[in-house]
UniProtKB/TrEMBL annotation:
Residues 1-27 form the signal peptide. This is (Mediterranean fruit fly) hypothetical protein. InterPro entries: Ig-like_dom (IPR007110), Ig-like_dom_sf (IPR036179), Ig-like_fold (IPR013783). Keywords: Signal. Residues 36-140 form the Ig-like domain. Transmembrane segments: none annotated.
Length: 241
């Protein structure tokens, strides 16, 4: 009888402990993290602010609430109910600390004049004295090309066709490929530079023997930006002259 009562008491204690832990675990949590997968900086236009949002739920009884934003594990913003939100670190001058008032949520931050080097992992953390939660998402900044050219010409001895394809001032790193008809050319010379602004320029060159080309033959150059769906292509027709 005593053993049965002890087992029941042990079960009650275990259940109570589990419910207590469950309550603590769920007392503050992030319900939605809004970080775009990509953000394109259009050329010759003033960039729109980059807006991120961290939606959360917190129990009214919770004390010591703090919300933080991090970029690549470095703190960039913090909000405490009794204190104004403030930016810090590498984005101190970039974050508009007044935006949450307009949006109605302290989890909203806006980054003014975003640039390519703001590509990375953004993390929102919410915590109280009793519990914590965090979510992360990666953002890729895209800078479109300033120029994209495809040129073809017969070599001096009329034995082959020289092909040059170049894309300039893009981010992230571009990957170029050249095709004639539907055949990809694997033997190409590739040269890539990164300028002081962090943008890439890549040029590929190759030569196709004249006897491999019929007239007319389409010659295509395409590129994509690593980690994105951004792609462009150029095409010209070889007529054997």
């Amino acid at each position: 009888m005593l053993m049965l009562m002890a087992n029941k008491w042990s079960l009650c204690i275990s259940t109570l402990t589990w419910l207590t832990l469950l309550s603590v675990t769920n007392s503050v949590r992030i319900t939605n993290l809004k970080v775009p997968h990509t953000y394109t900086l259009e050329r010759n236009t003033e960039p729109d602010p980059l807006v991120l949002d961290c939606e959360y739920e917190v129990e009214p009884r919770e004390k010591g609430f703090v919300l933080k934003w991090l970029f690549n594990n470095h703190s960039i913003y913090q909000w405490i109910p009794s204190v104004k939100g403030f930016a810090m670190g590498i984005m101190k001058s970039k974050i508009d600390t007044k935006i949450f008032t307009m949006e109605g949520s302290p989890g909203v931050i806006t980054i003014k004049k975003p640039d390519w080097n703001m590509t990375g992992e953004y993390t929102c953390t919410v915590q109280t004295f009793e519990s914590t939660d965090k979510k992360s998402a990666r953002l890729q900044i895209i800078v479109p090309e300033s120029d994209f050219v495809l040129e073809t010409k017969m070599d001096g001895e009329q034995n082959g066709v020289d092909i040059m394809c170049a894309v300039q001032n893009v981010f992230p790193l571009p990957k170029l490929s050249v095709m004639f008809d539907t055949k990809k050319i694997d033997s190409v010379l590739t040269h890539t530079d990164q300028n002081s602004s962090g943008l890439y320029s890549t040029t590929v060159r190759t030569r196709i023997p004249r006897d491999r080309l019929e007239s007319p033959t389409p010659i295509t150059c395409a590129f994509f930006l690593l980690g994105t769906n951004y792609t462009k292509r150029r095409e010209t027709i070889f007529y054997g002259k």
